[in-house]
Amino acid sequence: MYQYNEIDQTLVDERVAQFRWQTEQFLKGELSEDRFRALRLRNGIYIQIHAPMLRVAIPYGLLSSKQIRKLAHIARTYDKNYCHFTTRQNVQFNWPKIEQTPDILAELATVQMHAIQTSGNCMRNTTSDHLAGVCVDEIEDPRPYCEVIRQWTTLHPEFDYLPRKFKIAVSGAVHDRAATQFHDVGLHLVKNDAGVVGFKVLVGGGLGRTPIIGRVIRPYLEQRHLLSYLEAILRIYNLFGRRDNKYKARIKILLKETGIEKFTAMVEQEWQLIKDGRELSADTVTAMKAHFIPPAYLPNAVGDKSFALYLASDSAFATWVKYNTVAHKVTGYKAVFLSLKAPDVPPGDVTDIQLDAIADLADRYSFSEVRTTHRQNLIFADVNQTDLYALWQQLDALKLATPNIGTATDIICCPGLDFCSLANASSIDVTKEINDALDDMDYVHDIGELKINFSGCMNGCAHQSVGHIGILGVDKKGTQWYQITLGGSSDNEAAIGERLGPAVAKSEVTQTIVTILDVYVQQRLEEESFLDMVKRVGISPFQEQVYANH
Amino acid sequence: MQIIKDKHIVDDTWQHIADDATIPAGDVSVSLARWQQEKHLLIHHKGKLGVRLHPADAVTELAGDISRLELIELDFPDFADGRSFSQAWLLRERLGYGAELRATGQYMPDQAFYLARVGVNAFNPEKFKDLPVILAKLNDFTVNYQRSVN
Ligand code: SF4
Q: Which of A315, A331, A346, A429 has its CA 20 to 30 A from that of A190?
């Protein structure tokens, strides 16, 4: 993975010093609430219901075991012994003290981590495919480009006070696992007719209040123009994005109000004026790629016979392999998901003890690296099949082997009313209730692939509008209600979920989900997934059952 | 009144004229609207000329006038309005403006480093005691990742 050079290290160290001074000024009363807010947000610090919350960047979801140990240490020393992985591949601490945040950031800087631009109206952490570099359907590894973008976006002097937040995602595979169609800018590595890899550029996708699928504004951009093209997009957005209404300030609204033809012409015109002289050199790209060369895979991994024997003899192991591992481009290796969705645990939460153990296992079994996913789980990307059985046993002991990846209990869920000051409704307790109702793993496995996404308010941090089943907390005269949507998807065939009907009361959410699943089980065709059935029959069969007694 | 110019604290020798005030003798800056309306008169003024830009003003409208101007002010109505950063970049890089470019209004001293990078070389402080703070903030970082004006 990418290793900091002297420039990177100096930059994060100087950022910590800058923020330490800002915090001191604020605590002395020299800096107003309003101004400190803008500054602390750009260092990942929100003020939530109970305490400040610190969001730490995990660039494109990649962590070393050393960094994981540091997160464990921070959880133990400055927080309540746990942290929370988010849907944007980042990690959050829910209980730090404001006066200690500069110390936490200084600790992070010692392991090449930071919280720069993880919130605020600026360019955020660049996200990517959690299977980058190891998946079987890859066109090219997107991570070197992600790092180029990470550096370019970090402390960009012109674009740190944008109309609203700005998120970039990069995918390098045929199957889009990075939801590039739902980002302010989505970049898709594609080959042109000559077989040269470049970028398809999408703009204006987004979730939240107004979910919109991004539009292609350039089907093919040569690699060397990556940064000048981004600069052109950002300059147009910075100058012309709306600043009078924060709900209309994202680039998706500028694109919509301007019209795609005119918007594209504005970007292209700006780009023509700047593109020469700031190309990404082939040397830069090559040097960056050197940070992401594959690890030393054992050539004979596939020759191992024990894996097949364990698969045949231990059905619990076989089930785990089926649900929690995926194919690797090197035969004999697998990418392994660590499920952070054990029953009884809020989705995405991990304790300090688990983190230390995860770091040890990563050192032993996966070249000392760990990845975070968009669905709040972790991945060991490079595990030799010979090691899978031993790894499974240890993950199981750590409660990280619930065989539910991609199933109904792999729910993604925002912190909701428990922690978030913007929430309309709680999400963690209702998620637990749904989990309890789905405690029969055979039933869950029979339902198969299902993405349930649960957000506590319109901001949609858990991406409910692209959940196969989306649940959204709404406020009705001070009580908690929940809006259900069906049929959303952030995959290649992106779709925004359709509203099932009137919102349901908190006490009815679990029963509603159970009813929806029953309708699916009764009416599905052979081998038909939940999403496919919703596409085929629409929402009315579900409506009829859910609202039958109303 | 003192300001920072090219990293030094100096006296402000300019008069910043409201749209309804008469133009006095000496160096004067006016709003873009007034500049556009009274340019034919202003160019006969004896002192130096400057223009004050609001973030919504289209910088490129000054393309033909750049050589006449010796001060352009970027007036921040609110520190969160980042359009001025792109205005500065456009003035320096696209229009080739080489004279004084000054931040004024409600920006934060903590933004001085970014402002300097996009080509701002003078800072009008909100409060007198901000002067040394802004000077110090110009050195917040010794490294950067991307090309800009500086
Ligand atoms: S979706 Fe709403 S409630 Fe949930 S974390 Fe985001 S802002 Fe908070």
A: A331
What average pLDDT does the segment A177-206 reach?
96
A415 lines ligand 1 (CB under 6 A): yes
Cβ neighbors of A526 (< 8 A, separation 6 or more) are none
pLDDT of the residue at A51: 76
Tokens 């859910």, residue located: A546
Q: Which domain holds residue B123?
A: 2-75+82-110+117-137
CA distance B82 to chain A (A): 5
- Asked whether residue B149 is domain-assigned, the answer is no
Q: Do B113 and A22 touch (CB under 8 A)?
A: no
- Is the CATH code 3.30.70.1730 the one for domain A412-546? no
Asked if B89 and A239 come within 8 Å (Cβ–Cβ), the reply is no
User: ipTM score of the complex?
Assistant: 0.98
Q: What integer pLDDT is reported at residue A304 of this predicted model?
A: 87
Class of domain A301-397: alpha beta
Question: Does domain A6-109 bear CATH number 3.90.480.20?
Answer: yes
DSSP 8-class letter at A275: -
Single pTM value for the model: 0.95
Looking at residue A35, its amino acid is: R
Task: Write down the pLDDT at residue A300.
Answer: 87
- A134-290 in CATH: which number? 3.30.413.10
Q: DSSP string of A181-240? A: GGSSEEEEEEE-TTS-EEEEEEE--B-TTS-B--EEEEEEEEGGGHHHHHHHHHHHHHHH
Cα A456 to middle of ligand 1, angstroms: 5
Residues of chain A with CATH 3.30.413.10: 134-290, 412-546
pLDDT band at A261 (very low <50, low <70, confident <90, very high): very high
